[in-house]
């Protein structure tokens, strides 16, 4: 029995890594759409517990990916705005309360 559990855990790890690679190939919009589909599937049907758990795990991975993508975009926007302020002679930082 211990061998079966170890085998299942190894398979889950491989499937998890494969799923993460697939998720990283998605655009942000595709990931959000897939996340919405998972939520609908879990809300609208009576699915077995194991399948529900698999959907939940995929949803968590998609949610994490979306948060990371948003943070990445936010950092890029902040960098571009800072660069623009510096090029326009505004200095490195301008506090909006000084205006």
Describe this structure in words.
The chain has one domain (2-88). α2 runs antiparallel to α3 (49-87). The protein has helices spanning 2-24, 28-44, 49-87. The protein is built from three helices and no strands. With 99 residues, the chain is mostly helical. The protein is elongated.
Describe the structure in brief.
The chain is mainly α and 99 residues long. It contains three helices and no strands.
SSE layout and pairing:
Elements: H1 2-24, H2 28-44, H3 49-87
Helix pairs in contact: 1-3, 2-3
- Give the biggest sheet: none
> Low-confidence parts lasting 5 or more residues at pLDDT below 50?
1-5
Shape: elongated
Mean pLDDT: 81
Helix content: over 70%
Report strand %.
Answer: under 5%
Structural descriptors:
80% helix, mainly alpha, 99 residues
């Amino acid at each position: 029995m211990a061998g079966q559990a170890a085998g299942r855990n190894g398979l889950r790890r491989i499937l998890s890594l494969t799923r993460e690679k697939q998720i990283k190939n998605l655009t942000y919009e595709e990931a959000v759409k897939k996340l919405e589909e998972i939520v609908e599937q879990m809300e609208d049907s009576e699915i077995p517990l194991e399948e529900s758990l698999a959907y939940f795990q995929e949803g968590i991975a998609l949610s994490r990916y979306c948060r990371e993508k948003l943070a990445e975009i936010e950092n890029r926007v902040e960098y571009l705005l800072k660069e623009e302020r510096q090029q326009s002679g505004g200095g490195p930082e301008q506090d909006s309360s000084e205006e």
